[in-house]
Amino acid sequence: MSEPVRGLVVGHASLAAGMVECVRQIAGADEDALRPLSNEGCGPDTLAAAVLEALGEGPAIVFTDLGSGSCAFAARRVAMSRPNTAILTGVNLPILLDFVFHRTMPLGELVERLVEKGRTGVSGAHREGAAHADRALSR
Questions:
Q1: Could you give the CA distance from residue 61 to residue 84 in angstroms, rounded to a whole number?
Q2: I need a labelling partner for 45 at 20 to 30 A (CA). Which of 33, 52, 64, 70 fits?
């Protein structure tokens, strides 16, 4: 079994805190598994330093709300100099829930798994197809 991967959700305003709180309520995840960090009031250097400090030691994934912007830029900056650090952008609740239950997987395999979970966690429907929007009902 690998050392558990730590997760850090970095987002604009209170998005990260809200997502992490949802995961804790649904899954009962402990505070060391997944932490939130807001970019509010942070310049690029301050945000990168806060990301680095929040990650601590060991393997980690930085989850960001967007693929570009201050949160993703800070995450990329930190990941370039910190070993065993992955970045996953466009975070959603299915990704974070799967993360807390599978964080003992090797980092590379975990990232691949989470990207797939994130993709399958998104669905949509228009007026005629709305009754079939929930794929779970059709299985």
A1: 8
A2: 33
